[in-house]
Design a protein that fits this description.
The structure holds two protein chains of two kinds. By secondary structure, chain A is an all-alpha fold. Chain A has six helices and no strands. Chain A is elongated, with a radius of gyration of 19 Å. In chain B, helix 8 packs antiparallel against helix 9. The chains are: A mainly alpha, B mainly alpha. The interface between A and B is medium-sized, with 30 and 35 residues.
Chain lengths: 172, 601
Amino acid sequence: MSIVAASISGWTPEITMHDSAIDREHEEIFGFVDRLHKAMLSGQGKEILGALLAELTEFTMSHFANEEKIMAAMRYPEMPAHVQQHDRIRRTVKEMKARFERGEAAMTIELILFLSDWLKNHTTTTDLRLGDYIQVEQKFTAYLERLMSGDHRGCRVIVHDSGTLIWPSMAV
Amino acid sequence: MQLINKLWARNEVMPPRAELSDVLAESLGQVIAELDLLNHHTEESFLNIGVKMAEFMQTVSMILSELTGLADADHGQRASQALTCVLDRCMEMSLESGDGSLVSMHHAVSLLKRTVSGFQETVSTFRTLGLLTRIETARLGSTGADFCDLADDVGLLAGHIHSRVESALEMADSLIPPIEAAIREISVLEAGQTKDLPALISRTLAGLSLFRDVQEKARESTNRLGTEYGAVSDAFKRLIVSIQFHDITRQQVEHVIEVLQRLSSESRGVSGSPSSHPRGTSAVLALQSAQLADAGKKFTASVESVERNLEGIASNVLQMADESRALSGIREDGEGSFFLPLEQDCSAVLTSLGRASKTEAATRATRKGLAETIGRMREPIQEIQQIEYRMRMMALNARISASHLSDAGNTLDVIAGSVQQLASECSERSGSLVASLNSMSEGATRSRDEYGPDPASAPENGDAYVDELRLAIADLHSGAERTFAQSFQIVARGERLAGDLSATRKNFSVGTLFTEAVARARESIEEIGERAKRGLSNNGSEAPEPGLADFMSHYTMQAELDVHENMTRVTTGNAPGPAPPEENNSPSGETDGLGDNVEFF
């Protein structure tokens, strides 16, 4: 599926992050694309651009902060590269907002392509690797809880795709 | 079913062992359950695929309607006219030497300042002359008493002139900074309007031309894509019709189930006693196995055909999505589009217009301020002119009085002559000041006149012009974003449809399931048949039916119909035994007379 189809197809369970709050935020990104696309279809993109950019800026800061908090808490090994992508997106969003405030009103096509790129090359790729890690973390937690309760059935070592040994020590 | 009845009716009833009947009934029950489940599963699969096909057709219909919308759009007409008009105006502006009125005003103000400064020297000379008059009057004593007033008046008037000159100089000083600021702003504006803006507009016009090409191409391609999507729609319809073959195989399986149920029921009916067991059980089971084999063959062939069709449609749809993408200027990676530079050009023109609008407003304010200041400057100059006149009159009177004194009045005559001369020079200077002021005033009001007779309406008219262009550009951008969003949607729908079709094709596993289930059922049926035959053979009662092996290998529902007819003829004494049916190897099962079979059952 190309970048175009991916962006207006909406959120699907295939791209779950195994964290309901983050999933809801990802749905919001699709929501931004949907709102902008609908407005553009009627030639009214510029009318909603200001409000959309304001919301998007606030959302981006908060969403990335949430993801980064989760990554830090899990000591996610790919965090530096992931945060680099966040920084690039944050910077672009801020620049677009600043340009709008300086009087540039015609940037709806640029914005929808940017959001599509975000969804295609970050949300549905880089984020999914984090999602996998979150899932492993959840399994590990459940596993630990089981061990703590004295149930040692099926005790085994868990290794993440990245090769990081998660069990017996998360820090390794 | 009639055939089975006939077979059973014809066969002798032999006493099978009770345990054999139980085992037979149980095994048959398992096969029946599996076949029942198979029918249920395939029914569900085909219902699902039918729903999918209906959704796909709806998508195709939406794409067709959106393609038509894309081709009918005629965005940018207004923008094209406005841009061309502005471009012409910019070209005209670049041919002019910019706004010369402000530059000449700047020179005029500098000159005015120098001229006014010259008055200061004049004032000083007047004062000196007044002093000399006073000295000479004193030397003459009573003879020069008439000249005392002259000395006082020259001093007084020189003071007046000084005060007016100071005021005029102050005003001239205040004129220069706003003029210089306005000239700087206008230089930027001129650079933008005569260089940057035309370049931007030219680029936008080129983008607009590309945009029109896209629209034109969209129009041309709509028919072709419309036909192609129409063909896809027809292919879906054919597919929906073709998947109804499932009804035929479902009835075949149902028929087998019914026969097996009957057989199971018969077997249970005789268990527990040395009772009856249909002598033709193995033959009946063999026929059902053949029936299932035939259904399996038809099902597999038809499913393969459906899969091929789905794959073909998916591939076509993907190609069409690619074509839509190319039409809309969206790059293959989706990260750019020719609409993007068009949008950037629109944005740059709008920004430039905003800047030009601000500069024009500032210039207008400057010109207005200049006109007011110039108006105020006329007052001191006029006063100076009045003073000069009075001085000239006084000097004339002094010269007349001096002539009355003969030689004694010579010195005073020279002084009065100097005053007169100086007043005349002063008059010339103030005359040139008035001319400068008039020229400046003309320069300040010239641009306002361009907006119309009413200077108050000038800003609104200027803004209206810029607003018109801004609206045209905004209109162009709206058209571009609408076209982009529509094509974005068409591409997305096409790609999603192709993806869904491929997924449907991949998930269409009912063919394998059917084949496996039929193979299992046949194996069980044949095993049961074998067991039944062995049981009866032990009693020496079941002899192989003549021609049964050949009959089974060619068995179809039509064959059963033939057997039935043959049996009917046997009972009426027409012909002996079942005739082998005609071979039926049609892969699709759609045109091989199965319709008759369906009717038959």
